[in-house]
Amino acid sequence: MTVGFAESLRAEGIRVDEVSIGSTPTLSVADDLTGVTEVRPGNYVFFDAFQAAIGSCALADAAFTVLTTVIGSYPDRRRLVVDAGALALSKDPGARHVDARAGFGVLLTERGEQLTGLRLAALSQEHGHLAADPGVDLSELPVGARLRVVANHSCLTAALFDRYLVVRRGELVGSWNPVRGW
After folding, report:
1. Over the chain, what is the mean pLDDT?
2. Staple partner for 57: which of 26, 61, 75, 79, CB 3.0–4.6 Å?
């Protein structure tokens, strides 16, 4: 549509030097970028839980997770507490228009398998509060267990960290320092 508009302007004699498109969902579905001179896809390099929920990518495509540790277990209340809160994940509520029970990120095992029946229901500044559905055996996630969180908004979450640990196939292969321009 943007390229077509630029062509219409050119047909009227109006000079159009740049045709710029944005958004990760746009880039995720674009088959042909002929005529586009610039793309601004936001979190396309990482993806996140929100993009997976709206269909821009599969959850497995999300390249950015936050490693967290279970620091409290309350089986009688069907709750766990982890050491990643709003300062590690942001408070972006996710795609609640797609899933009313969407939490503050998608929970994975340390090895990257999605955990079902468990959601990141609330965040305080330093802690994440996990709620378990009936039937989830919380004894499988004792204090000290490590989990990964696919953040709802990787842009906000990535901005909270001064370095990224790069993991490939379970092995630490590098450390990246983000470049900040603000």
Report:
1. 91
2. 61
Nearest to 86 by CA among 116, 129, 119: 129
In this predicted model, what pLDDT tens digit does every residue of 124-168 receive, in sequence order?
999 999 999 999 999 999 999 999 999 999 988 998 899 999 998
Could you tell me the two tokens for 170? 């379970």
3-state secondary structure 19-83: CEEECHHHHHHCCCCCCCCEEECCCCCCCCHHHHHCCCCCHHHCCCCEEEEEEEEEHHHCEEEEC
Question: Residue 179: pLDDT above 80?
Answer: yes
